[in-house]
Specification:
The chain has about 160 residues and is an all-alpha fold. It contains three helices and no strands. The longest helix is centred in the middle third of the chain and has 62 residues.
Length: about 160
Amino acid sequence: MRLVAGGTMPFEILINILSGVLSLLGVGLFSQISNKYLNKIFNRTFKTETYSEKLVRLMDSLGKSSAELDTVLTELAQVANDREKAVHTLEQKLNDLEFREKELKENVQALENVPIQVVDYFAKLTSEGERRSELRDYALFGAGVVLSTVIAILLKIFGL
């Protein structure tokens, strides 16, 4: 074998160059693998989060919280509207009851001024009228039965 300047052989030079290139490739490959896999394993082992992962997690949490807040606000608005309608309805009923109370008070005041004898006489007249009306109702009913029977007999005689 021939010696090259510096006392090394060409084969050794080639091996040194190849080993240097392979070392560079190995370091680059290791660097990529370590960044990709070893960092994830390390982060899982020690529960550390990268800033981007933390930001993504926080943004997801913020989105969920915002959606829940929107739901709560919608429900609060609906409850407020329902309460407003209920209050409005109660106010209307209260106004109606106040008006009715005023009418009844006026009627009571008017009746307080009427003597007891007038009330008794009015009750007596009403009860007599009701008895007469009862007799009249029975008479009209009986007459209707008799008249319908007579008409049915006449129709049968004439063959209709």
